[in-house]
Amino acid sequence: MGDATLGKGRPAPLLARWPRKALSLVVTVAVTLLGLLFVTFMIGRVMPIDPVLAVIGERATQAQYEAAYQALGLDRPLLVQFFSYVGEVLQGDFGRSLRTGQPVAQDIARVFPATLELATLGTLIGVSIGVPLGVLAAVYRGSWIDQIARILGLVGYSMPIFWLGLMGLLLFYGILGWVSGPGRLGVFYQGLVPTRTGLLLVDSAIAGDWTVFRDAFSHIILPASILGYFSLAYISRMTRSFMLEQLSSEYVTTARVKGLSEWHVVWRHAFRNISVQLITVIALSYANLLEGSVLTEIIFAWPGLGNYITTSLLANDMNAVLGGTVVIGTIFVCLNILSDILYRVFDPRAK
Amino acid sequence: MMHRSGLKAAAIAALMGATAMPALADTPPNMLIVASAIDDLITLDPAEAFEFSAGDVVDNVYEKLVSFDPTDLEAGYQPSLAESWEVSEDGTEITFTLAEDHVFASGNPVTANDAAYSLQRAVKLDKTPSFILTQFGFTADNVEERITAPDETTLVLTLDQPYAVSFVLNCLTATIASVVDSETVMANAGDDMGNTWLRNNSAGSGPYMLQSWTPDESYILQANENYSGEAPALPRIVVQHIPESATQRLQLERGDIDVARDLSPSDIAGIEGSEDIKVMDELRGRIQYWGANQKSDVLSNPQVIEAMKWATDYQGMADSFLSGQYNVHQAFLPETFLGAMTDTPYSFDIEKAQALMDESGVEDAAISMEVRDDQIDLGIAQSLQNTWGQIGIEVELNVGTGAQTLDVYRSRQHDIYLGAWGPDYPDPNTNAGTFAYNPDNSDEAQLTGLLAWRNAWAVPEAMNEATQAAVTEQDTEARAEQYMALQEEFAQTAPFGIMFQQVEQNAMRSEVEGWVAGGSITSVFYWAVSK
């Protein structure tokens, strides 16, 4: 993303640079999303599944089949179908989901906040424990804390998520009763706070309804912890290996020789230097959770994006799949842009 | 998929190891909370709804001219909105007299106009289930003349030919014959006769009204205060979408829900013996069968087909992986349907099957089987693969999603299709008309809705006629006998192997009373439940 002309002579005035950058960004994003849509659209059309059957079901007669075939516009050439779809998307119309019977945009506005809330809390848990754990494991390499980090990482890497989810439910919900069961909110609390963001914790906090907040929290904390654990396992492992590389560098030895405190060496020097790599790792892990964790969503009956897209794909509900793909594509593009910006903040070389 | 279910089995085994948990919470006394997989819901418009979960909603929100009594499903249709009916001498006209005390949730009285509007609307909208009505000769063009309401309490149906009155009335118990509040629907008609609006709103006169439906999450029904019958014991029904059996079981054990509808056999086994929970078994209408494409040289040999029927381990499957979920059943009509055959002429007999294969002259046959990637279907497919292999028929399994296998099936490209069939309306013709009827076997006919056509089976003329004759037989007992004879002949000659009928196991807290899931003919009756 570096600008090749930078560093040669005087940089162009800031105001003159921005429109060009913004334009190039918009073009990149548009081309990426269009390409993504194109590939998904074509995969959907060449899959050996008949999209008409998904609409009309098993019992329909040939006449109803033909009518639906025409209505879906499937008699037109593929490219025409694709561009007319893109035209509709540009007007905010993602079509209607065959599976839920609702407009796709409305469906996504419902399922995405559920995933966003879960993924954000999961990532917060993963980062707040994973990063310090990874750093400590690298600093005290071979110690008990390193062993713990390693075991946590290994288990997180190899244990099926739904098994951990079921065990978590059995222990914390079934036996101990510390948390609420599946779903986002108890039956009695549904519809009590107005929907503003779709994030129940935020909406209930805005409304000042702390009973609903507590109930939502007791529903989300277990699935978020389970997702957080998996992201913790990944983040701590990566942090550890980045830190080990830095700690064996000459500048660290130099800093130690200069008599700087260990704390200073580790956090001010070594850690600062891994922050850029770490941002990528965290962004990737966050993006992963935002795609939705299908199995966690199934076990916890969490009405999220992953489950929505998967179920739609199996039902050959291509409008829903394409809509979901656009959302996930946009997330990846946004997180990419965000990590680029953060690079510039943390890495003086990128400025 | 297999990988996942294998691991899941391990998880469930671990769950089962846990000791029984005390119920820590009770559901409120005025509310029924049900956990079920309800992601099949697409629409709640009775003219369009055709999914199992939708039937559960529509049948509790709307009333029909005739309906069932949950305490005696076998008695068949009973008066509901219609208090009586008369058939004209030539058998083509049915005149219903409507009861006067029924009222919609909106406060509007239910009149014959509403009934005529609802039936006309269903025919004109022409959604998938519309064939249940159009088979009596109604079309978008003639329906206004053929379904009329000469006054507030009289509804006249004019059929294109005489039909068995039991056939017509059975069809009128189907979801599509629900009576909607014409005034409310017309006020929200849009450009599609209110189809979009009724997808997630209700306008009925049943014991409940729809309060909300959030796809893949839940639906809530609230008692309809204008309901003319006895008010339901539980004024609020909450059905949550919980797809995972182990999760449903945990919720039930903790007392967070009253009824769990999708427990796996291992979870059912796990809760057996619990004092707080009971399990109710109910026969449903779904049957498991295989169909053999008659375009195949091997499969068009009747001795091969018969050999395959004998080389099926019915009881072995029913006692092992289908235990509690399916009973052995070998007729195309599910048990409790009028005229259903309960005999099981075939049993697992490899020697007999081998003898038939020897007679057939077919050696080392290799065929393929289309199977949905569903645990039950895969289990049955593997068992058939094993036992048919023993008589020299090598089976290759083509596993795909429901839509994929159906696509192959409808275009007659399969050898064997393994699948399930559920009746569309509670009359024997619903299955007879698809298994044992095929008026034109040519590819061009495209009778894709008929299972006989899909398997390229040229149904013998006598059987086609018998199927047709049974829908016009006025004497109900004679009609039942006709279906019996039809099923017997079908079991012997048809290229279909019918194997099992579904049993639904609903687990519930012991205080729940009056739960009826609808048997093989209809949907759940929430209003009959108390606790």
From TrEMBL, chain A:
Gene3D superfamilies for the chain: MetI-like
Keyword Transport: yes
Transmembrane segments: 22-43, 118-139, 151-176, 216-235, 278-302, 322-343
Membrane topology according to the record: Multi-pass membrane protein
A single GO cellular-component term on record: plasma membrane
Domain ABC transmembrane type-1: 112-343
Entry annotated with the keyword Membrane: yes
MF terms (GO), sorted A to Z: dipeptide transmembrane transporter activity
Keywords: Cell membrane, Membrane, Transmembrane, Transmembrane helix, Transport
Stored InterPro entries: BPD_transp_1_N, MetI-like, MetI-like_sf
Subcellular location: Cell membrane
The family this protein is said to belong to: Belongs to the binding-protein-dependent transport system permease family.
Protein name: Peptide/nickel transport system permease protein
From TrEMBL, chain B:
InterPro entries given in the database record: Peptide/Ni-bd (IPR030678), SBP_5 (IPR039424), SBP_5_dom (IPR000914)
Cellular component aspect of the GO annotation: ATP-binding cassette (ABC) transporter complex; outer membrane-bounded periplasmic space
GO BP term (any one): peptide transport
Claim: Signal is one of the keywords in the record: yes
Xref: SUPFAM superfamilies: Periplasmic binding protein-like II
Signal peptide annotation: 1-25
Domain Solute-binding protein family positions: 77-441
Subcellular location: Periplasm
Record's keyword terms, sorted: Signal
Keyword Signal: yes
Any one GO MF annotation of this record: peptide transmembrane transporter activity
PANTHER family in the record: ABC TRANSPORTER, PERIPLASMIC OLIGO-PEPTIDE BINDING PROTEIN, PUTATIVE-RELATED, PERIPLASMIC BINDING COMPONENT OF ABC TRANSPORTER
Family, similarity comment: Belongs to the bacterial solute-binding protein 5 family.
Entry protein name: Peptide/nickel transport system substrate-binding protein
Species name: Pseudoroseicyclus aestuarii
